[in-house]
Design goal:
alpha/beta, six-stranded mixed beta sheet, 11 helices, globular
Length: about 300
Amino acid sequence: MDVPEKLAKELIRVGDKYADDLVGQRIAMAYPIIFYYLENPWYVERACVHKKPDPFMLNELNEESENRWVYQDRLVSLADALFQLRDCQNFDVLCERFQDRETKPCFTEATVAKSFSKEGFEVEIVRESGVKGKDFDFLARKDSLEVSVEVTAKDAPELTVATIRNTLDKKRRQVPADRPAILYMIIPEEWTENGAEAERIFSEAMESYFRNSETFNAVCVVWYAKIKLGEGRIFVLTYHPFEHPSPRHPIEDLSFLRPDNPIGDLNSLRNRVKTDSEGLKRELDEGHGGTPPSFFEWYASAKHGS
């Protein structure tokens, strides 16, 4: 995938400037990507530090606030998604959605679409049509497999079976009946604080829903787990798929619902924070923890080939 010449030059310039600080380098390189694809005023108001911060990006002025870690993580994640998806079909539709919608649903859609792209799927962003069964978020293709993907973000203050069931009942009407479909549900991290209770509620809701509908092959619950490490924070995008036992259109292999995480699964990571926090922090500072953003891999390749 080619990178526009203007953007490529700026990424190399910024990357070289921060070559001795891999964490700062990723953050600094995120800005020109977001500016190039989302432009002003979105860039100034939601990507840059602002006196009226976006409620999702949390781009506030207070450097003492813990929100700065969330802001930096979301900045890099957004740039990674835009860079990874830049050549997908109807990418302009995704960028347009950022302009007239709240940030969270657009960010969520882009992040999930990025995960499919990195798993080798071709992604097609679906234009809204107002037609029942055709207003899902994107289509993912790989070999002979085509999957309709719908993404939703929940903000309800309390996790209940009814909250989950109502969402599932509403979303099933947005996907077509003639191919497999997957729903991604981004939930607040607070819902997972009592893991056993959250598991019970989700399992009950899913079992009830799957008994009455064959629409979704899987419902994948996703959240950003935030773990304190010294002065900073680690953000782990955590996936918990619930697979339908007998969907309308079966998919043989659903392993792509569980993307690999080089710094380990959530429980292993939490354990390592307790037992080897200094070693983990050193790896992260050196840029060895987590999946490198797509633009960082491109930069390393461009420098190696120059």
